[in-house]
Structures are given as structure tokens and as C-alpha cells.
Write a structure and sequence with these properties.
Layout: H1 3-15, E1 21-23, H2 24-31, H3 38-50, E2 54-59, E3 62-67, H4 69-82, E4 94-99, H5 105-117, E5 121-124, E6 127-130, H6 137-144, E7 148-153, H7 158-169, H8 172-191, H9 199-214, H10 233-264
Antiparallel strand pairs: 1-3, 2-3, 4-6, 4-7, 5-6
Helix pairs in contact: 1-4, 1-9, 2-10, 5-6, 8-9, 8-10, 9-10
């Protein structure tokens, strides 16, 4: 688990509902159960500040970091997709983008990652499609510095043609297998957490569960049911995730609150 990715998970799943800020000591303490060393946390924080995701500030407990508005918007959108709080419908139209492919490989990979995260699939290197407009898509494209055009498109062959487009833009077989692998990998880890487990163990198990689930934001565009195969593995995987994420939430919340309290509590003077 990379420190930067874990910080996004930590802020999105735990710190965003608690004001989106925390002292650096709490960040270090909360990522320790995941095996992430303090230097890695500090390096990742500095990188996220440079990229405009975090803003440094002085808290009563010492130096800390606050989510920027850009980060808060991205995490709110991610949370809606992680916990499936938005009903997925489809009006039969695609959001179609044609763009000038960046010449620089790093810029190209960054743009591709952003488009994938927003639910777009690649038809050709310069043509991307989604079943609904992505949040802030125009901002993302403008910030990338590439020339682009956006269209609303319907397929002349109706749903049959639309399904062919979907299968060209996304490998549904690979995504389905990834969902099955997610359940197989996570089942023994969450099953090991029982009423006898302590809060830190539950927190770490839930963190890894959410972290693994979050990777599907970059793989699965959450297509409308009309465009998915029958018995879609993502449905059972979502039910598995929801059940265990909810079961482990109370203990995880207690651990987070305990760490934040320990890192913000005034230090006692010697002899008092």
C-alpha cells in the first residue's frame, strides 16, 4: 500500500467527515497499523501539497494539513461511488470526447488516469466515451492543456449498438474477474475480525477492505444495468463490501477518534 494512496483513503473515509484536517502526528499514527513508516507519510504529504490536494496549516496540536476544495470535491465524488449512494440510470446517450493526445508520456498517463477515474473508457487513443458526464470533466481537460471537443451521442443501433461500444471501451470480463478476486482475497481477512478483535485490528482490516475496493474507481465505470452482462460479479462484490464495511465501521471509528484525541490532547507538564 503506497502512502499517498493510503492518505487519500484516510482523508476520504475518516477525516473528511471530521472536518478534513488533522495534525501530521495523527496522520503518522493512523497509517502505522498499515505498515507505512513515518518518513513515507511525510514525503507523501509534501507531494500532495505540491499537487494541490492538501493545504498546510497550524493546529493547536502542531503542524497539520487540510483538504483543498479540489480534493474535497474529488473525495466526495469517490465516496458516492464507493458506497453506491447514487442510483445509476441511463438515458441512452453517451458523453463522447475527442482530444489531442499529449506528446509527453507522463502527461498522457496522468490524463488517461483522470479520465478513467471519471468513468470514461478509451475507444481510440484520442476518443473517450462515458455513459454519463464526469464531474468536473471540463475542468480536468482544461487543466491538462489539451485541445478537446465534447459531444452527446446516441448509437443508431440502440441498446445493441451501445453494448458493442461498451465492450470496446471496457474489458468487462477482466473487470468481472477482478470483482471475484476481490471477494476471494478479502473474505479471510474480514472473517478474522470478530467480537474479540480490538479496535486497531478492525480499523486495519476495514482500511485494507476500502483500499482494495477503491481500486475499482479506476477500473469499473459503474455502467447502467441495461449495459451489463447478466449475473454481473460486481453486484455480489458490492453487497460483500457493504456488509463488512458497515460491520467494521464502529470499531474503526473508535480507533480513529482515539488517535485524533491522543494527538490533539494538550501535553501535560512534568510534575502536574
Amino acid at each position: 500500500m503506497q502512502a499517498r494512496s493510503a492518505l487519500f483513503d484516510l482523508y476520504g473515509d475518516h477525516l473528511r467527515p471530521r472536518g478534513g484536517r488533522a495534525p501530521v502526528a495523527a496522520l503518522v499514527k493512523l497509517l502505522a497499523p498499515l505498515g507505512i513508516a513515518p518518513p513515507a507519510v511525510r514525503t507523501a504529504v509534501s507531494r500532495m501539497v505540491r499537487q494541490g490536494w492538501l493545504h498546510p496549516l497550524r493546529l493547536s496540536a502542531g503542524p497539520g494539513y487540510l483538504l483543498t476544495p479540489k480534493a474535497a470535491r474529488r473525495l466526495d465524488e469517490a465516496a458516492a461511488r464507493i458506497y453506491r449512494t447514487t442510483k445509476i440510470g441511463w438515458d441512452g446517450r453517451f458523453d463522447l470526447i475527442t482530444l489531442e493526445v499529449p506528446a509527453n508520456r507522463r502527461d498522457r498517463l496522468r490524463l488517461n488516469s483522470n479520465l478513467t477515474f471519471l468513468g470514461y473508457g478509451m475507444l481510440t487513443e484520442g476518443t473517450w466515451v462515458a455513459t454519463r458526464p464526469g464531474e468536473d470533466i471540463d475542468v480536468v481537460l482544461t487543466e491538462s492543456g489539451v485541445r478537446f471537443e465534447r459531444f452527446t451521442a446516441t448509437h443508431a443501433a440502440g441498446t445493441t449498438g451501445a453494448m458493442a461500444v461498451v465492450r470496446q471501451a471496457w474489458d468487462l470480463g477482466e473487470i468481472g474477474e477482478a470483482y471475484e478476486g476481490f471477494i476471494a482475497e478479502q473474505r479471510p481477512l474480514v472473517a478474522a475480525i470478530t467480537v474479540r478483535s480490538d479496535d486497531e485490528e478492525a480499523y486495519a482490516a476495514r482500511f485494507r477492505l476500502v483500499h482494495a475496493w477503491r481500486t475499482f474507481l479506476f477500473r469499473d465505470p459503474q455502467l447502467p444495468p441495461a449495459l451489463l452482462p447478466e449475473r454481473w460479479p460486481g453486484t455480489s462484490a458490492a453487497a460483500f463490501f457493504d456488509r463488512h464495511a458497515a460491520r467494521l465501521r464502529p470499531a474503526a471509528d473508535r480507533y480513529v477518534d482515539q488517535c485524533l484525541d491522543a494527538c490533539t490532547r494538550p501535553t501535560r507538564q512534568k510534575g502536574t
